[in-house]
Automatic annotation (TrEMBL):
InterPro entries: AAA+_ATPase, ABC_AA/LPS_Transport, ABC_transporter-like_ATP-bd, BCA_ABC_TP_C, P-loop_NTPase. This is Amino acid/amide ABC transporter ATP-binding protein 1, HAAT family. One of its GO terms (molecular function) is ATP hydrolysis activity. Residues 17-266 form the ABC transporter domain. The keyword Hydrolase does not apply. Keywords: ATP-binding, Cell membrane, Membrane, Nucleotide-binding, Transport. PROSITE patterns: ABC_TRANSPORTER_2. The keyword Transport applies. SMART domains: AAA.
Amino acid sequence: METTLAHGANSAAQPLLQVDSVTLAFGGVRALSGVGFGVQPGSITAVIGPNGAGKTSLFNTISGFYRPTSGSIRFRGQDITRIPAPQRAKMGLGRSFQNIALFRGMTVLDNIKLGRHAHLKTNVFDALFYMGRARREEAELRRDIEERIIDFLEIDHIRHAPVSALSYGLQKRVEMARALAMQPEILMLDEPVAGMNREETEDMARFILDVRAEWGVTVLMVEHDMGMVMDLSDHVVVLNFGQVISQGVPAVVQADPEVNRAYLGSGNVDELRAKLRAAARIPTSAGAAA
């Protein structure tokens, strides 16, 4: 589907990230089936869909936690389908998680610093005696995190607090800070405002817009808050039962009858059963006998 990106993004540019015909199967169950879309540089792309549509499976496949059964993923034109997750992070794919994955006993600052470990060049000897390169890298790291990331996300007042003492909304902000410490070209956010109140959601939306505008970071996010998705996104990809059922600019996707049926249902029970059989690859005869 041909689309025009908002906010000045160039739709004719080569995608920074290209997902081509990606299928992911666990045994006889397909989590993803022929998924394909592109993420343009400098854009905010949202992946939406009902619960169980395959959104987090897609994120895990793009970031390298799952290897697709078939299809390919290209980043900056390079095929990364078989590249391990740590190497993808080093290349510029930084992400947060649907369920907060911070070290709760560590401080905010130490959690954020962990995001930069893939880029550090210190060897074991330097690190052991904290000398030379290790000392210089530590100083540069602290300066970058404290002067840029912590200030940008307005969390200076909690930098030395243990993560376990923070509210849920602040923990989500710290997780975003750790992802930014990875110096990503694409920031992948898995449900960045899930569980947040309205004020926290508005703050996070502002940070997402600012990280694109001020830092030039491309954003790919999974999100259930439709108001936020439609307000922020340049391009929206809709998944249902592991397949892309619609994609385009927010206004086009929002008006798509197939998207409305995916969220609201058609009321036809036989149609729902047929979709479930197709997603699970269960033969019709076996499903009818159940």
